[in-house]
Amino acid sequence: MKRPPQPEEFALKETSPKIAGSGMVTGDKVTCTYDLVEQMQYLYVRVVKAKELPGKDVTGSRDPYVEVKLGNYKGVTKHFEKKSNPEWNQVFAFSQESSFVDVVVKDKDVLLDDFIGKVTFDLIEVPKRVPPDSPLAPQWYRLVDQRGNRVKGEIMLAVWKGTQADEVFADAWHSDAAAVGSENIRNIRGKVYLSPKLWYVRVNVIECQDLLPSDKSRAPEVFVKVILGNQALKTKVSQVKSVNPMWNEDLVFVAGEPFEEPLVITVEDRVAPNKDEVLGRCLIPLQMVHRRFDNKSVPTKWHNLEKYLIIEGEKKETKFASRIHMRISLDGGYHVLDESTNYCSDLRPTSKQLWKSSIGLLELGIISAIGLSPMKTKEGRGTTDAYCVAKYGQKWVRTRTIIDNFSPKWNEQYTWEVFDPCTVITIGVFDNGLLGGGRDSKIGKVRIRLSTLETERVYTHAYPLIVLQASGVKKTGEIQLAVRFSCSSFINMLHKYSQPLLPKMHYVHPLSLIQQDILRYQATQIVSMRLSRAEPPLKKEVVEYMLDVGSHIWSIRRSKTNFFRVINALSGLIAVGKWFDQICQWKNPITTILIHILLVILVLYPELILPTIFLYLFLIGIWYYRWKPRKPSHMDIKLSHADAIGSDELDEEFDSFPTSKPTDIVKMRYDRLRSIAGRIQTVVGDLATQLERFQSLLSWRDPRASALFVTLCFIAAIVLYVTPFQVVALLTGFYVFRHPMLRHKLPSLPLNFFRRLPARTDCML
């Protein structure tokens, strides 16, 4: 079943920016590592320091600062009180053209600032610098007055022409941000962030000894509560109802380096249905916990439990200490999931000792955006202060904020190491709320799956920014990107398709689905909290939008989407069934006779069955190569059923969880329905993902996987042709019914290959 095309408004558009990487730049151009963005020319002025500035009145002191003026724009340094040899070390970047730039030294005064001296540069004489040249050395310049006569004092400056590839670009004051006060400059600068290193903390609670319950006449009902930060888990009540209870239960938490909170272990006795008595507690710093990289058991350890008695309002420790027996480890063999497994950007284990070498580089050029919607009101008119965030692996990047512009041009380029081609990069566009004191508003986002990209090719497209609001689906603009996936070892990349998708520990000692959901939520909370403490902060709402927090909540629209994904994936089988029914019904007698002849041939010569099938698949794959996708994947409103959603369904999707409906009965039923339906939605979505992976074998959406599969089909056709069918059938039977001792816990090679095939999940809203 062919999917209906998207409306032109929401379609992906190929662009032709003037970038060196795509060969669109002609004539004289400077070689630069920034070859996926348009070159932007800037005039840089570094104001380092001044010396021997003249004194003022009787005190002989000055409060100096510097103004750098180019045309109608000026940048101002901070002022120093009573200092004749100030040091600023500040860089200014001007994108406007003019003939001269003036560097003016002034004295801060209450009424009118006094002029001290200036230096003027003719822009024709300013040198050009191209990295990786060393930075231009600043020089001392004598100050002159308004008439050009020398005055007392000197200033150290460096003035040069460059591009956004200059290393001072990110921290420079920009002329297009002249309206931003000095206190907000830090909030509009571009930055690179790193997610905290996340670990799974496994606490195996084994037993306790010599507990001291207050009521010795009753059998204690003991359980253990473990707290790590805002995560709290507890064991079941021990079946051994004595002062020496036993559990042997595993509790798993998420922790991020650097470790800030200790593990708090509390042993409690349930003395009444709503009353628990603390029998002892202990604190365990995570820095002291054993780190393991495989499934080998770590040593157990006894820990003393502290118990305090309240005597006359004061805590006093009891002399007799109970003990708890536990096995605690930091499991570095897992990959801590903080994203949906359908569009993960990183699949490596926590421990660096288990990392494999990279297979290539991902380069992203964030060029510009056009037609952005106004996100807030300032001085009676709509405005947008836009910036971009890109997330791949542990590295987050944030562009600088372009102030009050619906068509901002960033032209910033970033690079990531790629360790697995079956990963997804996410790019989001946001409105900077720090300038207005509010939240950062989402404008839209784009996901690009690396396995659908051809290596060494530069993709330049304008991606529609689509958001679903309570009023319906809306296009909020377009973002122009340039993407290139470079491969350092093609053999290693193909080898990745035969490897397990996740690290070995996920299969040897798997976590339950409920555990994964809880741990993923905790991981996203840790990541958002840590990044919100950076400078400038990456706000919680930004991180959660990039990580798709809450995407598992029940929605009629998503359920419809997953259902029709299943129908679309099964459309091929349905078509074959209809065709077979037509053969049986003799709708086309000639075709039916040919099928009878083919059936007789295959019965008489069974060795032709498998070669014919694989040869047929090979020919279909070659035939479909003509229609392989030429563009990266993007958000599809038709696939997401966002264009035909009713007001009631939108009201349900944007309803809070739990519901805000007033009636208690409706609230109870509504919450129960959404919880159950959310799980059904996930199952249906997983089924659709598997079926779509079958489709992608011959669709060339992942060109490497399709090429590998088509090649294997051709080889299999030849091998199976020369091998007797009876031998193949016998070996297959022996393999299927092999002894459990000969089986491996890790998935098989074909299953690993299949799980790496792309689905349509990264195209869903």
UniProtKB/TrEMBL annotation:
<keyword id="KW-0677">Repeat</keyword>
<dbReference type="Pfam" id="PF00168">
    <property type="entry name" value="C2"/>
</dbReference>
<dbReference type="InterPro" id="IPR047255">
    <property type="entry name" value="C2D_MCTP_PRT_plant"/>
</dbReference>
<feature type="domain" description="C2">
    <location>
        <begin position="343"/>
        <end position="463"/>
    </location>
</feature>
<keyword id="KW-0472">Membrane</keyword>
<dbReference type="InterPro" id="IPR013583">
    <property type="entry name" value="MCTP_C"/>
</dbReference>
<feature type="domain" description="C2">
    <location>
        <begin position="188"/>
        <end position="303"/>
    </location>
</feature>
<dbReference type="InterPro" id="IPR000008">
    <property type="entry name" value="C2_dom"/>
</dbReference>
<dbReference type="InterPro" id="IPR047257">
    <property type="entry name" value="C2B_MCTP_PRT_plant"/>
</dbReference>
<dbReference type="InterPro" id="IPR047258">
    <property type="entry name" value="C2C_MCTP_PRT_plant"/>
</dbReference>
<dbReference type="Pfam" id="PF08372">
    <property type="entry name" value="PRT_C"/>
</dbReference>
<feature type="transmembrane region" description="Helical">
    <location>
        <begin position="592"/>
        <end position="625"/>
    </location>
</feature>
<keyword id="KW-0106">Calcium</keyword>
<feature type="transmembrane region" description="Helical">
    <location>
        <begin position="707"/>
        <end position="737"/>
    </location>
</feature>
<dbReference type="InterPro" id="IPR047259">
    <property type="entry name" value="QUIRKY-like"/>
</dbReference>
<dbReference type="GO" id="GO:0016020">
    <property type="term" value="C:membrane"/>
</dbReference>
<feature type="domain" description="C2">
    <location>
        <begin position="24"/>
        <end position="141"/>
    </location>
</feature>
<dbReference type="InterPro" id="IPR035892">
    <property type="entry name" value="C2_domain_sf"/>
</dbReference>
<protein>
    <recommendedName>
        <fullName>C2 domain-containing protein</fullName>
    </recommendedName>
</protein>
<comment type="similarity">
    <text>Belongs to the MCTP family.</text>
</comment>
<keyword id="KW-0812">Transmembrane</keyword>
<keyword id="KW-1133">Transmembrane helix</keyword>
